[in-house]
Amino acid sequence: MIRLVVRKRAKSLGWGALVVYLCALALALFICGVLLRLSGRPGLGGLAILFQGAFGQSYSLLDDLVKAIPIFLCSLGVALSFRMQIWNIGAEGQFALGAVGATFVALSLPGLPWPVLLPLMFLAAMLAGGLWGLIPAALRLRLGVNEIISSLMLNYVGILVLDYLVFGVWKDPASFGFPMTAEFGPGGQIARMGPTLGLNLGKLHWGLLACPLAGVAYGVFLSRTRLGFELAACGEGERVARYAQLPYGFLVLLVLGAGGALAGLAGSIECSATLGRLQPTVMVGYGYTAIVVAWLARLKPWPIAFTSFLLASLRVGVEVLELKLQIPAAFGQIMEGGILLCVIAGQFFLDYTVSLRRPEAPVAPVASGASCAPGVKEAA
Amino acid sequence: MAGRESRTDIGAADVLPEVRLVGVTKRFGAVLANDSISLSIMPGRIMALLGENGAGKSTLMAMLAGCFKPDSGHIEVEGRRVDFASPREAIAAGIGMVYQHFMLVENMTVAENVLLGQEGGFLLDPAAMHAAVTELSERFALPIDPGARVGDLSMGERQRVEILKLLHRQSRVLIFDEPTAVLTPVEAEALFAALRAMSAQGKAIVFISHKLEEVLALADEIAILRRGRIEGEFLAADVQSPADLARRMVGRDVVLEIGREPMETGEVVLDVRHLGGPGLDDVSLSLRRGEILAMVGVAGNGQQQLVETVCGLSRPRTGEVELLGRSWDDFFHCRDWQGALAWVPEDRTGLATCGSLDLTDNLLLTTRQGFSKGMWLRRARAREVAREIVRTHNVQPGRIDLPAWQLSGGNLQKFVLGRELLRRPRLLVAEQPTQGLDISATEAVWRRLLTARADMGVLLVTGDLTEALQLADRVAVMFRGRIMGQFPTGDAARVERIGALMAGLSE
User: Fold this and answer.
1) Chain A contacts of B351, Cβ < 8 Å?
2) How far is Cα A113 from Cα A128, in angstroms, rounded to an integer?
């Protein structure tokens, strides 16, 4: 009888990881092609349109980049808490609160010039998002409430707060009844990069600068600072944290607060740069995509940047696909989910090797149905 | 290497042993987990396998259950040599094991769990399944409701389900790994009745335990395992008392003689007065610099709770604990990373280290304050020191970029000890510091502890009496949360009585 033997890898796969990722991606695209075919559209042709839409022209690449900005920032935020096994699903709500905070400043102080107003908006956004993130942290520490549930629920609350404001107190009288605030003053809008640099950069805006700043800060914090190390060590569980006297409670507050601040920053950039005002369409699910990104990228900064761009371009490509083939908008989410599942399944091969059992090979408990006595391991 | 012939063969010469282990040896790296062990397991008999943690009981049983293969020697079932490649083959040969951690599907009923994987056909017949389970449970005195959901059952009932699973698979040899560890006393009694019923119907029973009373209450024959070897094998009827058994279990064999120079003692570093709480009953002890105090006793008699209190994991419920002259609250409110308290826990993989982090990061786990400058961490220096520890303590395989899970328990232990001594503590708590270490590593650790005590008081928690007597200046014996006696190791008359104290007989 042929049996599979599964063993944990002693060495990491190195460049072989790239092959695993590419295969997983190819499998996901293949599944999507089949789905297109089943819904009566050309499978291969559909994928071609998708690629053309996402990467075909320079303006589509720029569009990818614009959409990658909020995804990247939110993703850094959730990755921070995932590092210590705190599952922050609340980036979407923190994003909404960030947009609300920035709008509050922009509407209250409309006449200020941008060097004053924009930093104030960012600050308000990070404060609002950060405080929103602290709610699940406090609930977890004080009452033992699972942060997955509370942060997820707070997403809906946050979006409703946003809706309440734009449908009510902040609604622009000149908007003909549409739910939106008045346009921010010129000092409250992030400018596009193209005109200043004298290049044709489409919708790309200066908010892009937040990404390298946040990315470097994230990387340096985790690899160089003591707090960053304590955070990673906490990921092994509260028992180890108590043994090593790690400030577990403080770190929970820190990761959820800082994660909320990053998502809030993303919200403020999005509504200041792309829309120039606050309206419900600012919420397009970047906060949820960010979770997928953080997971796919295994919480590392460069892969987060790359994956953010990839999933942003998927969004752009699917928009084109919707237009050309009359595909429902949900197809984008199906693809996103498909990629996530395939890549996560593929990541199994990064940590484990699978081989057919040879007669003399020792048996790994994982593969053999019944596992061995706890605490008894084959020596590595 | 056939090893010694089992004495129980003579006791029941006309019956063929169900299972025979012949010269079974298993090594993990340099550690000899089982050293040419020969044992016969007889049908209709209950055998107790007695030994301290790390004596090799689990390894031996894991080989019987098909999880590992012996390095040399072999296993015979009904006189025929077998070569298990997986637990499945062991089960097919009639050997089943009930682990401490049950392997049941909580959302399924008792009957579904028992018949899982051997339903026979595509369609299920709940009535027949219930009938089959009921029949089995009545035959072996294991009362259970076949329709109950496993998630709703108590630990004792879940254990019955595990046993029924094996009985339904026609297992003729049933192995129990510390079966009473999760049971209440009443449930334990019920289990004993069931074990007797099974043995009366010809099943061979092996159970692993370190509880002396239950071994005497239940077993027909007893085998004692120490440091991977069978150190004694006799009929339970030949044992006079629990104290007698304790003496046979802990032994006094000198595996390693190590000269211990007396040392001048300094200030009191740990003072425990009338400490009470869960698992502890009026514990008082004090420890000075320059001294090693060994806490001995059968595992699970309050040592764990004492250590957790002394090391700051749980607050003293009643009584007082003073560390380095400060009260418990004051000491743990703000404590220095160095020059104070260091702890080498028994659980090296789940508590003392982070499996996924490399050795540098594991060094930083308790010494990070020493490697930081403001908010920054000086990893380069930490790497140097980690390399230094790996070299001086001979941590194999000698690389610091490996994640901790890839190191064997003994090597991890050497690393942890090096790390904790780096903190230059004045009070060191060492739990089972040489468990799973080979002789040379054990000697290295012993020597290090002996020299270290010049600067600190060492609280040594160990189940190994040899270790306690070799290292300690004083020894304290624990039983059911109480200290039964406390005396210098030079007091030969009282040292003789340690076995009795461990079994709960007071001085």
Assistant:
1) 239-240, 243
2) 22
Nearest to A28 by CA among A297, A302, A314, A294: A314
Q: Tens of pLDDT along B307-366?
A: 999 998 889 999 999 999 899 999 988 778 888 899 999 888 778 888 888 899 999 999
Q: Who among A226, A228, A374 is closest to B99 (CB)?
A: A374
Cα(B56)–Cα(B228) distance, rounded to whole angstroms? 5
Residue in A with minimal Cα distance to B371 = A226
Q: What does pTM read for this prediction?
A: 0.74
Tell me if the domain spanning B266-340+423-507 has CATH number 3.10.20.30: no
Chain A closest-CA separation from residue B269 CA (Å): 20
Find, in chain A, the residue whose alpha carbon is nearest to that of B32: A379
The ranges assigned to domains in chain A are: 66-298
Ranges for all domains in chain B classified under CATH 3.40.50.300: 8-248, 266-340+423-507
CATH code of B8-248, in short, is: 3.40.50.300
Distance from CA of A5 to the nearest CA of B (A): 11
For B102, residues 6+ apart whose C-beta sits below 8 A from its C-beta are B158, B159, B161, B162
Contact A290, A71 (CB under 8 A): yes
Residue A221 at interface with chain B, using a CB cutoff of 8 Å: no
ipTM of the complex: 0.77
| Residues in chain B within 8 Å Cβ distance of A247 | none
Mutate to test the interface with A, among B351, B431, B438 (most CBs of A within 10 A): B351
Dihedral sign for Cα A222, A225, A228, A230, please: positive
